[in-house]
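Hi P.,

Sorry for the delay on this. The queue was packed all week, but I finally got your sequence through. Input first:
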Amino acid sequence: MSKKTGKKKTTPGVKGTLDITRSGMGYVIAEGREKDVLVRPQDFNKAMHGDTVLVKIKESNGRRIEGVIQEVLERKQTEFIGNIEVHENFAFFKPDSQKPVPDFYISIKNINGAKNNERVVVKFLNWEKGEKKPEGEVVSVLKAKDAGDMAMKEIIIQNGFTLEFPQPVLDELNNLDETIDSVELAKRKDYRDILTFTIDPADAKDFDDALSIKKLGDNDFEIGVHIADVSHFVKPGTALDEEGYTRATSVYLPDRVNPMLPEKISNELCSLRPNEDKFTFSVIFKINSKGKVKEYWVGKTFIHSNHRFNYDEVQEIIETGNGPYSEEITLLNSLAKNFRKERFKNGAINFSSTEVKFRLDENGKPLGIIVKESKESHQLIEEFMLLANRTVAAHVAKIKVHKKPIPFPYRIHDTPDEEKLKPFAAFAKKFGYKFDLKDEDAITKSFNQLMIDVHGKPEQHVLEQLGIRTMAKAIYTPENVGHYGLGFENYCHFTSPIRRYPDVMVHRVLQEILENDVHPDKKMEEKCVHWSQRERAAMEAERAGNKYKQVEFMMDKLGEDMEGVISGVSSFGFWVETVNEKCEGLVSVKDLSDYDDFRHDEADYALVGIRTGKKFRMGDKIQIKLVAANLEKRQLDFEWIPNIESLKVKAVKAKKKRK
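Then the structure:
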């Protein structure tokens, strides 16, 4: 207590994320603090689960740090799914949530035709001081086709994304000027007469990048990386721009895309469709046949795509040498291979991870699971996009305004955490792989050598996954510390403005530089934090969507025996990924109690039997049976099928007990 005032001492507020438990108690995960801050429900100050808040820390009593929320800085979720209860003069909305969320008050003018007990999407409007409930409005009445459709919509909303675009956005969209006039053309380089094509997945509709190629001499080529000029249509301060900033990214679920921008922009106006003139922002390279970049130019352009390829078509051309523009495709692939080789030589880490795609019927029900491979056609596009991104970042990094770097959304990836690397290196050593932790170069070389040595071995998947987990997460920030994983000193996202807002911002800053009219954005750090958070939320939504479809697919396999690989271990059990379906589920430690009592050995990523010494270690292949598939929880439960030796151990134990 303060002697002068008799009041409790308080420390300045700190920023963090509010996590509300099912019991209703809150914890703020605060930046720069080891311990979470306990916040009691009466101190939430209208904050809800997942919100970014400013919390004032009360004086700590040494056991637990408590706080009071001063302000909600950013709402995680502004739309909610639930049921509406309509009365004569007002309505209440009860959100569906595993976390405690207050009921909403809805005025009759804001129910938008919803009827009593209908399932609706409600948008948060405000929460006035002194009011017990927040106020909302019905955005839409959900008429879902089936449970799967509803589940996907709920996943999108629960992760803080909205299903529909607000009316002001749609009004602006209808008034966009689509004409291509001579004034705008005069500001751009005309590349319409140069061979240009796109390479995308077969089911893609938003083509945001294209490549052009022109021979300059015996050994020199002009290669253009052309990116959809979204900033031409989406102007700062407009409703379109504000909505794009808020969403920050498109969300890709197994059966749908929740776009960052309306489809008229993403699939029509900006999409680099074949045989259409389009505005682009481009990086044009002069490159020799060995992949050496001699010079580059950056600026606004005008293109006309001659052909739309999908990856499979390009892969066939690479493998057979036959097909449209085969000579150009072969050359681009040769250059990409040189870039890739040089990248790994200069410190990039060659991680690969397994991605799955679902084969769906017309109603979105999964019929099969396909493992996506990264082939040369994918790597061709990847290398040219990486080249454009790093070139733009390096170009901006050189520019100073008032002797200071320009605030810019760099894409950075910090060096690995040594504390995470040590147990990983010790684990890899058990498989016979050496890992040098001397310095950053040694770590990179060790990772790349490990990826070569482990290829095709039973332990490949587990070591790749564990290796990725030791890495820092890539984020957006004006602090340019480079991209460790790619081995780049400068890197940004320039090539996907249709689906990522940071790319739109990169285009704007770059254009200001080209026009020599830079207006440094003082809020760039705050914006970068928002984009990084939205990116993580999109990844969570995509994981949840994939998990739902996995469980939906596996429901027909209840009771079946299958082969799996242990993919994770904890004190309460271990996770297994099935070999054929690439679906993950849990084997509970409770179900192993008939065989032994197991303890968690963190250093060995294993559960170890206290009496028998039986080990369940990450990377081990085991036989399992699918015993439960819960769609609501998006959860699979397996049982371990012991082999004959394990049964013998059990029999011996039983015999000893009888004696």
